[in-house]
Write a structure and sequence with these properties.
Length: about 450
């Protein structure tokens, strides 16, 4: 029995080790200490001084540099004036052979102070980008999930938890591990802000080396796919190309990220991940990203979905954003993809009629769910009710007898938001060939008896 337990433990993979980590929410990550070379692009001015490059989280995530003392007169142009802080600059880190573009955000040039610090922001990557065996990346504010077990096994700590998600298709394997820092997660939920919560690794399924440009394209698409799972902007950052355990290139940039907040999402993280169906969706999404006909549409739809799902915007704005995304997908699917409607028919129809055709083609219910009962009085069905609210939001009353959006109760407007985002989630999931379970957003999120349900088209295709 003991031998069997030992064998099972040994078979569990070790959790990925992050190249960069945060112990506390919003904790600055020092990326580099050393010589920083700055060239002001529109002036014959350059300098090299000791400084620091860091990832700072607040007020918004950015890569920043600080040179504690540039010296008097270092940033003075030929006319004797201090260089404009908005000037574009090229920043080079000679020891790491990294270079990138940036700008100066603040300088303190008073002759009354001993030091003259210079502050700025930048995006920077390695000058040389050889192929690598794998690419490590980091995720911020990503939800925890239940999937494959991983472990930490050191002289001082042994721990096992179900924290590995493996995404793969015929070309790529993407491993994503939770960092396992429970205290960090608790603090993040209590304080808000940002923290690195997961570490990821990209490898080629064939075992071949990973080309830098191919990795960049994959990580770009992966950012949208993972954000769609999460319901918030949670793209990868701080890439490191590895050969063995040694970095061969780095890229430091900050994607669009959402501060920690609780939002509704279709992804049921409270139960084990339906990894087979997630991978079907991942494969289809990468196919769309490589398609000239679909890339812009699917990326834009997810972008609008994430903005509409944000907790910080008004419900009326949520409705409008969801409707814009649904109209975009209706055109892409009904006109461009299936040819069910001609461009003339689509433009002649009401937007609610086009949405109804889209939903019916995808086996998505057009009725208003019973849980959104107050919305049933607004239209004949879901598309009708949704676009009635949308039209009253964006168009002022055309005559005195026509009421404005404020005539609808706050609850009705909120239910329209829920309906629009539910339709949008399902439309994207249908396009991604997802046939697993999901969490309908019109059901209460925190009741223990509310379990994920199959997507509507799963029964239609079985």
């Amino acid at each position: 029995m003991l031998d069997e337990t030992r064998r099972q433990f040994q078979s569990i993979p070790v959790a990925l080790k992050p190249h960069y980590a945060t112990r506390l929410p919003n904790e600055e990550i020092v990326l580099y200490n050393g010589l920083i070379h700055i060239q002001v692009n529109d002036q014959p001015i350059n300098m090299a001084k000791e400084g620091t490059v860091s990832l700072s989280w607040l007020p918004e995530p950015s890569i920043r540099f600080l040179i504690p003392d540039v010296g008097v007169g270092k940033f003075v142009d030929l006319a004797g004036k201090v260089v404009d802080r908005a000037s574009d600059i090229t920043v080079t880190l000679p020891p790491l052979e990294m270079s990138g573009k940036g700008s100066i955000t603040r300088m303190e040039m008073s002759t009354k102070t001993r030091a003259h610090p210079c502050y700025g922001i930048l995006e920077i990557d390695s000058i040389l980008k050889p192929t690598s065996e794998s690419v490590l990346f980091h995720l911020v504010n990503f939800e925890n999930y239940f999937e494959e077990p991983i472990k930490i096994d050191t002289d001082t700590k042994i721990r096992i938890w179900t924290g590995r998600l493996v995404l793969q298709n015929t070309d790529w394997e993407v491993v994503i591990d939770q960092t396992g820092n429970k205290d960090l997660q608790k603090l993040l939920k209590a304080q808000g802000g940002f923290a690195i919560t997961h570490t990821g690794r990209i490898k080629s399924k064939s075992g071949a080396d990973v080309d830098y440009e191919a990795a960049e394209k994959l990580l770009y698409c992966l950012g949208y796919f993972l954000s769609f799972l999460n319901g918030t902007w949670s793209g990868p950052l701080l890439y490191v190309g590895l050969r063995g355990e040694e970095p061969v290139w780095r890229k430091w940039r900050t994607p669009h990220l959402t501060p920690w907040c609780s939002v509704a999402s279709w992804w049921p993280t409270s139960v084990p991940v339906d990894v087979e169906h997630i991978n079907q969706a991942f494969d289809r999404f990468l196919t769309y990203c490589a398609s000239a006909a679909w890339k812009d549409s699917i990326i834009s739809a997810i972008h609008l979905y994430l903005d509409a799902n944000a907790s910080s915007i008004a419900v009326e704005a949520k409705v409008v954003l969801a409707c814009v995304a649904l109209e975009l997908l209706s055109w892409s699917y009904l006109v461009n993809e299936t040819k069910k409607l001609s461009p003339e028919q689509f433009n002649k129809n009401k937007a609610s009629a086009n949405l109804r055709s889209l939903l019916q083609s995808m086996h998505i219910p057009v009725h208003v769910p019973d849980e959104l009962s107050e919305l049933k009085t607004v239209g004949a069905d879901g598309p009708d009710a949704l676009f009635n609210i949308r039209n009253r939001t964006v168009h002022p009353p055309s005559r005195p007898s026509t009421h404005s959006i404020t005539a609808y109760s706050t609850e009705v407007r909120w239910q329209a938001t829920v309906l629009g985002l539910w339709y949008l989630e399902l439309a994207i999931l249908y396009l991604l060939n997802y046939h697993g379970n999901y969490r309908p957003r019109y059901l209460p999120r925190y009741l223990p008896n509310v379990l994920p349900v199959p997507v509507p088209w799963a029964s239609a295709s079985s």
